Amino acid sequence: SWTLEPQIVLHPYDVWNVTGQDVIFGCEVFAYPMASIEWRKDGLDVQLPGDDPHISVQFRGGPQRFEVTGWLQIQAVRPSDEGIYRCLARNALGQVEAPASLTVLTPDQLNSTGIPHLPSLHPGEEAESEEGEDYY
Would you say residue 119 has pLDDT above 70? Predict the structure, then answer.
């Protein structure tokens, strides 16, 4: 019987957004036996969401065989949510993680910064977020 340590096939994307908006990070993992996915913030060892009511996590099998996909949703982001979020995938053979950063701007910062100076979106990110609508 074959085994395979976790591989992250779709990494969470870096996100910037404005305070009050919702943010979703996604992470797709291939492993056998199936991996578990956990989310952490910055260097902390605390598993999200912890007892934070404005953060939630969801998981489901797929889309491919032996894959699992996890989402981390932050509702009404605030400046304190800024940081690096890590998708941590683990099975009996090992673990792997992928980081993504969240930048939170206030409306005032957005007006003074102007869109062009913000980090550019990754290609395909738009399609990714629309796909995510099914999972609410």
Answer: no
